[in-house]
Amino acid sequence: MTLDWNDLPGLFPGLQASDRWLPLLQRHLALISAAGPHGRATGVAPGDAVRRNYAESLELLRIIDGAQGGPPLVDIGPGAGFPGLIIAAVQPAWEVHLLEPLKKRATLLEQLAAELGLPLVTVHPIRAEEAARGPLRETAATVTARAVAPLRELLEYATPLAMPGGLLALPKGSGVLDELAEAPHALTALRCEVEAVVRTRPEASETPYVVLVRKAGPTPRLYPRRPGIPHQRPL
Prior knowledge:
By secondary structure, this protein is an alpha/beta fold.
């Protein structure tokens, strides 16, 4: 299924002022297309971009809204801006932090935020493990991460960034049940719990699920472990 730009306002009627944000999303695609290889931080073909990148980001925002998530939002590994920069374009009053350790992509994200007129977006050219040991620790009302890592590994990156009571909104594929089956120890150690596994609308997203995790209490100081360790030895 493919989507046209004009399909987005009808698909997301809860997102007001489409006459403002729709041109921003179109401008974003034009900018990343002109940026060359660093802008193509996705394997999505240009003809599928509206659905696979933009509608999918907006579908995640719709689910976040339904779970009473909100700003400040931290997005781990956004690549060319999905979903964090797209959420910021639609919700310009939200404080959004983008964690992108690849320096060239981080520079591109800064340029994109400036070109789109999004002053509340801050780009951090560091890894999530480093960010969670600094000023961003336990500051986010919502943490997102798209296609970053298996759930039990991803929880160690994301949970320390969320404030107690905060929401993790983590898009997942068809293997979500297997990932959940491997995650109980990580959930317990990081003091969080799965609140829901939400099915996305197939017309809006090819990623079929979003796992909603609620942080129940402060993250133990042990976590996150040093960069690289969560990947090498996931909880």
